[in-house]
Design goal:
alpha/beta; Rossmann fold; two-stranded antiparallel sheet; 7 helices
Length: 201
């Protein structure tokens, strides 16, 4: 069996701290021959903001035609979804928020149309991982982003207890993560935890 990992690099700054942390996780995962990974860089994708038109509540499809036409299906099929986004002004960056807002389609499917997001046999078997970095050293710097992330994973059928977090603060300048005392080790351990959990289900 092959396990599919779909990762979103949300930072507008390429190869910065959050994307580096994501790459460490993906590199560790790719050592397993049963794992396939795909990384989507949101700053390079054509993803328009939600218009709030609510047409998805009637049609079960988003009215906007862009790269999410294909990404929606990737989200449904993946065994693990990873969202890596830095903290900007005490919450996730706008590129990540656009993706989450457009997940309104899944909320409409689930709660308005009462249709499944994932097949019954796959429910409870998927995992989510939120990776984030912040320049501030405050221990509460990630607090505002957590409910948003939980909402995103919830509407795509990933439960709170199946969502994991890799959060590193006090890394501001680009490349600061490279000097962190154990960020890479944390990333590699998280990769191992996720793969072993997926394989146990």
């Amino acid at each position: 069996m092959t396990y599919t990992i779909l990762a979103f690099a949300a930072s507008p700054r390429r190869h910065g701290n959050s994307e580096t942390l994501l790459d460490w996780v993906l590199d560790a995962m790719q050592k397993d021959p049963l794992v396939q990974t795909e990384k989507i860089v949101l700053a390079q994708a054509d993803i328009k903001p939600c218009r709030g038109c609510n047409s998805c509540e009637k049609t079960n499809i988003c009215a906007i035609r862009d790269d999410l036409d294909l990404i929606y299906e990737k989200i449904i099929k993946a065994d693990c979804i990873i969202l890596a986004a830095p903290i900007y002004c005490m919450s996730i960056c706008s590129q990540a928020k656009v993706l989450i807002d457009r997940a309104q389609l899944f909320r409409s499917r689930k709660y308005v149309l009462h249709l499944p997001v994932t097949p019954p046999e796959r429910q409870g078997k998927r995992l989510g991982l939120f990776i984030s970095t912040a320049g501030q050293k405050w221990d509460y710097v990630f607090d505002a982003s957590i409910p948003v992330i939980k909402c995103f994973f919830h509407v795509i059928d990933i439960k709170n207890h199946d969502t994991k977090y890799l959060l590193i603060n006090n890394v501001d300048e680009k490349g600061a993560i490279l000097s962190h005392v154990d960020a890479k080790k944390q990333a590699e351990e998280m990769a191992e935890t996720i793969i072993s959990t997926l394989m146990s289900r």
